[in-house]
Design a protein that fits this description.
There is one protein chain. By secondary structure, this protein is mainly alpha-helical. It has one domain (7-186). The chain contains 10 helices and no strands. The chain has helices spanning 7-17, 21-41, 46-55, 70-77, 82-90, 104-124, 136-143, 154-164, 168-181, 183-186.
Length: 188
């Protein structure tokens, strides 16, 4: 059994491979969302969920062509626990890797990664540019417009909701609430 970095160690590792503010902020947003869901679904493992969120795109900035593959190699070289490696890689299931989300935590990551981007883009449409102004209705409206935040895969978001056994509305509402819970902390 390997090691699991704490949040501070995970952030240091993240910053070793990522310098762009966008990528660092995305990692922190996903980590916050994962922590929010962990409080409801697996409170004893909240830090693990947050670390997975923080490291899920570890390799994306430096190795975009090897995303979800290179991060497995990097983490194995550092002796990181296989459960964490499986979790971070599983968010690329079906598109980049064959690592299937199995644990509820992995399914939450799969479902919310793309969705946080869509919600963030909707927030930028508001005069305050804050996620605090975002509603289910506004996200659903933009969800139906494939050209809006085109990089956020609606198919993956829907697959994630299906994996969790949640309606799309439930997934979106919970993810908005998650992001709003730490909006001030990250300035979103």
């Amino acid at each position: 059994m390997g090691t699991v970095p704490n949040l501070e160690e995970a952030e240091t590792l993240l910053e070793e491979y990522n310098q762009e503010e966008f990528h660092l902020k995305h990692a922190k947003i996903v980590s916050g969302v994962m922590g929010y869901f962990a409080k409801e679904l697996d409170p004893a493992n909240e830090q693990f969920w947050r670390v997975v969120g923080l490291l899920h795109d570890l390799d994306y900035e430096k190795y975009p062509e090897q995303h979800c593959t290179k991060e497995q190699e990097i983490l194995r070289e550092r002796g990181v626990d296989e459960a964490l490696i499986h979790a971070v890689a599983s968010h690329g299931y079906g598109e980049l890797v064959d690592v299937k989300p199995e644990h509820v935590m992995e399914k939450v990551l799969f479902a919310t990664d793309e969705l946080t981007g869509l919600i963030g883009a909707v927030a930028l449409m508001h005069p305050t540019k804050s996620v605090r102004e975002v509603s289910l209705k506004s996200v659903k409206k933009k969800f139906k417009q494939p050209s809006f935040a085109a990089g956020c895969s609606r198919e993956i978001i829907q697959k994630g909701a299906d994996m969790l056994g949640w309606t799309l509305d439930e997934l979106i509402s919970k993810t908005i609430a998650a992001m709003q819970s730490f909006a001030g902390e990250l300035g979103i």
